[in-house]
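Entry for the shared binder. Reason: the reviewer on the internal report wants the predicted structure included alongside the sequence.
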Amino acid sequence: MRIISGKYKSRKIVAPKNLPVRPTTDMAKESLFNILNNYFYFDEISVLDLFAGTGNISYEFASRGTEQITSVDQDFGCIKFINQTAEKFDMTINTIKSDVFKFLEKASIQSHVIFADPPYVFTEDLFVKIPELVFKNSLLLEGGMLIIEHSKHTNLSSLTHFSYSKSYGGNMFSFFQAN
């Protein structure tokens, strides 16, 4: 994987092979950030990266100037890798090792962008639980956006606060905003 744009543009990041992850493809990530670029000034926002995995999305935000980034993942190896990479590139990424659902139930962190990349094998009720908890606990700041990455076989368009979705190959991003 590589960083698409910003201070660390074109830097390659090689994650250990034993991490239980499926990183967002460069094509999908570039398309996502082209969309976000129309909504936000990256150096003025805070980001919550759920199911952070390798930290791929967190690094992209950091490279573009975001300084308030929190990455949550339950895998110790993922958290360790994110910490090592953030230190290597001098990025300010706060990591939390936690089950994402337990974190969301107790979280008081509010962010402009919440990005969730759960396992594609999640059942529909688990996908539904993400926006439910985010909006129930008011985790999005005013004008904020929740983005859930999922396979094209999962349809989240009937959920409350759903705004729109974009498809990139087998990847899909569903965007949610407070009404």
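Summary line for the report: The helical segments are 26-36, 56-63, 76-89, 100-106, 124-136.
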